[in-house]
Amino acid sequence: MADSGETFSVKLIAYVLMPNHFHLLVQTAHANLSEFMRRFLVTYTVRSNRRNQRSGHVFQGRFKSLLVEEDEYLLPLSRYIHLNPIRTRQFKDVAIQSKSDYLKKYPWSTYPGYCYLSQKNKNIDCRWLLNTYFSQDNAQDRRRYREYLHQGIEGEIENPFEQVLHQSILGTQNFVKWVKKKLPRKQQREIPSLTKLQHHISVEHIIEQVAQGGQTQAEDLLDRKTKLKELRQMAMELSYRYSNYKQKQIGAIFGVDYSTVSQSRARLKAKIKTSRKLNKQFNQIKEQIINLVAVGMPVPRHPPHRSQRALLTHWAPASGSDAQTP
After folding, report:
1. Which of 52, 152, 175, 223 is the most exposed place for a label (fewest CB within 10 A)?
2. Tell me: the pLDDT tens digits for 130-174?
3. pTM score, two decimals?
4. Does residue 177 sit within a domain?
């Protein structure tokens, strides 16, 4: 990874390697992410196979990349990455100190290097993140970052990947507009995820479409005690897909928190897999909404964004595993 980063002038900021996937936070100077990842994955596979006397793929499928807005999202994203090893079922009821000790000794992460100067990895640019969010790369600011991470160990933290807009950008709506302006129109057409950013539809319009498809009233779907649970779940899922709202904002409209929105979406997906009738109804409503998105419906305004700097985070599943983020 360090060799590939040096070859393509890619700044390595943070990473964690898990049994079935990894997260890698980098900054590219020359828009050459694909070249960097291709070389890294190929050379890692060759060296790993040679060392373990095996052959074949080490990684399964393509990597996924996200463009990240720096100001509001980078610091919590780095925390999520560094706490990934304890975000598993086996650590659900483990004591806080035991979790902290485990992370300190976890060898496949940049956590130790960020928290303790003596374990600094020369190939990782800790200075950039520490200088940006604290003051400088010294023992005192590493302690401050360690305390920030520890707050996440003690309590629940939001999963930043649940706030991704249109499967490609982690940032505000104004940041999305800024990204689009920076890309040539031809290049935007060649990237499906950016093509989806051309138009949005408001959550209110989505709720109306779901209500119409279910032959009911929009007010019924906003009622937390409604008996139309599946239609309410559809409204949440389609709002997440086709509006420019995040789960927290969608939850505010439905009178629940972001985790309830996430759970409702998961339950709906499970039901759709087993019910042909529900699957057909969902797809019919989805098609109606897609048609509205295609012509462009009005969306709510968002506050102006503060930063024009971005980073990228990537992950790829290991061979023979379920590609899921814990």
Report:
1. 52
2. 888 887 778 888 889 999 999 899 887 778 777 787 677 888 888
3. 0.59
4. no
